[in-house]
Every structure is written in C-alpha cells, then in structure tokens.
Amino acid sequence: MIRVAALALVLGLGAGSAQAECRQALALALDVSGSVDAREYRLQMGGVAAALDDARVRDKLMAMPSAPVRLMIYEWSGPADQAIIIPWTTIDSEATLDGVIATLQATERRDATPGTALGVAMIEGARHLRQQAECWKRTLDISGDGKSNLGPRPREVKERVAASGITVNALVIGIDNPGMGDIRQSDIGELSSYFRAEVIVGPEAFVLTALGFADYARAMTEKLIRELDGLVLSRL
Asked: What's the pLDDT at 189?
C-alpha cells in the first residue's frame, strides 16, 4: 500500500483531477496466479508498460485533453488476493503516463496465493469501476492464462457484473512453447471459448489472444488500441 500512496503523490492525484470530465475508465486486471512464473510475470508487467508506451496508444490516450482517460491496474490470483499496482490515475499528460510506465517497469513480484479466482477478479474490477460512474464508458480489461478453479465461477457473477453497466474484455494467454513442457494450457482455442462464454460482458466485448507471455506486449497493444478507439469521434 505504501507504493500506491507514493504513486498517488507523484502523479498529483487530487480533487482537481477527480473533477475532470472522463471519457473512459479503464481497469487492467493482471493474472499473477500460480501458473505464472517469475519470467512470465516480468513479461506481463513489461508488456503492459510497452503497450502504454506505444506511440499509437499514447496518441489515443492524449486525443481529448478535455475528457481524459482514467486508468487503474491491479493483480489478481486467489479469492482473497488482489493488489492494486496503479490506483485510479487521470492520464492527462505525457508526464503522468511516463510515471505509470516507470512504476510498472519497477514493480517486483509479491508473494501471491496460487489459485485462479477469476470470478472474484471480475467482481473486484466491477467494484473499482463503480467508483468512476461519471465516465462515459467503463471497461474492465482482464488477462488470464487458465480457467477459474477457486471461488465463484465467472458464469455465476457475470449477470451481476453486467448489471453494473460495464464492459468486460479479455486477453487470453496461451502456451509459450510446447517444447518447454509447459502444459498449463494446451488448447488456446478452448480457453478463448471459455472466456468468451463466461467472462466477457457487453455488446462490444471481445477476446484477444497472446501466443504466450512473449507475445503479451503485442496483444495488449492491440487490445488497448481497440478499447480506446472511436470514443472521441463518437462523442463529437
């Protein structure tokens, strides 16, 4: 919690930012369950940083200064194990975005329970997004490399999440290299179908896939571009 408080001070979060009009609240939920090893954790965290630093993503984030995007990022694993990495931050300048990227690059893996409580992660995301009710659009962007195995199933919470008026998109992470013996996910098509049926919410919700954590930065970049696209023109 110390790093969250410190980041809030560095980014200048205050009453002025909270009162700014907001075109989108975007919460990124990152899977740090037991199937994600130290190397994969680093690739995931670095992948989010690289995606936010991509020139196309930067352009979209900065496209409407009068109504900026608000961003938060949290990790999830077991039913009682979620942690905020980036608290709600108004992305209203290049310097603010640089601060978020630097924090992601410097974040070290904490001890986390090994379970995969995907339903709880969805509830947690919806809870955070309720804090941003005035934003034109509210999106939960959830990454995962496996099916839920603890806590309520995603199908059991999906209706409740949908009732909150948010969109839930998913980034499914497949196997890096079958030759490495990593068997946590042998069929990315099956996992994508699972997320499509049980996790995503909203008329424009979608699932993208990363062919392993080494492909995560590319997939996250594509996902952010798609999520941020069109809001400025549609509002005008």
From this structure: 87
